[in-house]
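Raw record, unedited: HTH tetR-type domain-containing protein
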Amino acid sequence: MAPKKRFSAEQIVEAAFSIAKSEGMDSISIRKVAEQLGSSIAPIYVNFSDVEELKRAVVQRISQIGQQMIDKQNTGSPFDDIGMASLQFAMEFPLLFRDLVLKPNDYLQHYDQDMGNELVTHMKKDPELAGFTDEELRIILLKMRVFQTGLAVMAINGQLPIAADLKSMKELLDSAAEDVMLAARLRKQPDAQQ
């Protein structure tokens, strides 16, 4: 009898990620991942108890990719880096973006808390955002996330009245960010409190 192939958890996650990229998260199954690896299902069950655990590992991989995209931006403006990385992810992985953002799912259950804390920490490095509390930064992030999500949806669906390239979208994103930050600064002024 031929020896069974062994695969690391990372290899299995990469195979599942490949399926998710091309067919969507709902297409991930133990059988499909085994086919992708040219294996039986046994090596997958050695590393993952079920398909849901594997899908959670794929979502963690997606989060890592998102963080790598933020780190690669490195423009000197962490806030801009977050926005551009989000748009880049949506443009490079439109099917995953749709699955994770537009479909009701539990995949991002802990994302908002975990990634939100990381993003707020990242935003604190931006001199343009100095003086804002963590809660104010969370609100700014939420407003920009709402805008960026809408922008990304329109871009990947071909609904933008401007060119749907990253440069044009960055200009639009920068303009919206300036507006959001200006409004947040105005609300912090003592006269605005009255």
